[in-house]
Write a structure and sequence with these properties.
Strand content: 15-25%
Largest sheet: 9 strands, mixed
CATH superfamily: Aldolase class I
Order of helices and strands: HEEHEHEHEHEHHEHEHE
Length: 268
């Protein structure tokens, strides 16, 4: 089903409808086959998921200037094809890591893996039974992509990057951000464990984190919230004066206070 949908792709909220099987490219520039730029054990995610075997697909449907993986997340042609002998070798590596106790979960991420759903599902179907599966996403998907993902992953780690559409438009070059992402998070919370992740950007405490915290408290009470305070000015952050510096300790402390006062379930 996912492979057929590549002929009229509606997986992300751009809903471009291009025929990727025929060589057409939408805003993400992805082709019919997903590509991987990283596959390794990592320990930088939420504590009860780690160590995690993280499999990163190239390319993304957003263009966040602060992207911490930079070129690979913007370039859907980066890395190696996920199918074929490479997939078999990767599945074997994951199996050994799981059976030896070296990892607690498997995370599919990017870039943005939603744009590669056919390749993702092909890979996931070959993984060992019992391995907890985590879907790391920018939550910019659609009902079409959610239908394919239903029941596949044990946990979603979903970004809520911006608290307003103006910041999203200026920094990620996407329109209508909140109206698209908010319903997707609500839908995800109905069907699986959801962790909402927010990266605290310098200078965006009031315009982004405060409204994010208020929206989560009102719309997703009790959901786990991962407030990330380790911002680093990489990639094209220098295009924005406030993003040319690392995250500030004072803002991180104030952000934690805001989250606590909002009654959020903050996790590490």
């Amino acid at each position: 089903m996912a492979r057929r949908q590549l002929s009229h792709c509606l997986w992300c909220s751009h809903r471009c409808g291009v025929d990727r099987l025929a060589g057409q490219r939408g805003p993400c520039h992805a082709g019919p086959e997903g590509r991987l730029f990283s596959a390794r054990v990592e320990v930088g995610d939420e504590s009860d998921l780690c160590p995690v075997f993280a499999v990163a697909f190239s390319g993304c449907d957003l263009r966040c200037d602060f992207c911490n993986t930079g070129r690979e997340s913007w370039d859907a042609s980066a890395g190696s094809v996920a199918a074929g002998p490479g997939k078999e070798a990767l599945v074997a590596r994951i199996g050994r890591a799981w059976e030896s106790g070296a990892v607690r979960s498997l995370m599919i991420l990017g870039g943005e893996p939603t744009i590669h759903l056919a390749s993702v599902l092909d890979l996931v179907a070959a993984l060992p039974d019992g391995l907890p599966l985590v879907w790391k996403t920018n939550a910019h998907g659609t009902p079409e992509s959610h239908a394919l993902l239903d029941g596949v992953f044990d946990c979603w780690v979903a970004d809520l990057k911006f608290g307003n559409d103006d910041c999203a438009r200026r920094i990620a070059r996407v329109d209508g951000y909140c109206a698209r992402v908010h319903p997707n998070l609500i839908q995800a919370a109905r069907s699986t464990r959801l962790i909402v992740r927010h990266l605290l950007m310098p200078g965006h405490l009031d315009c982004c984190w405060r409204p994010v915290a208020a929206w989560i408290a009102a719309s997703l009470p009790g959901v786990e919230v991962s407030l990330r305070t380790g911002f680093w000015p990489g990639w094209f952050s220098g295009r924005h004066p406030e993003l040319r510096v690392p995250g500030r300790i004072g803002e991180a402390q104030e952000a934690a206070r805001i989250g606590i006062e909002a009654g959020l379930r903050l996790i590490e």
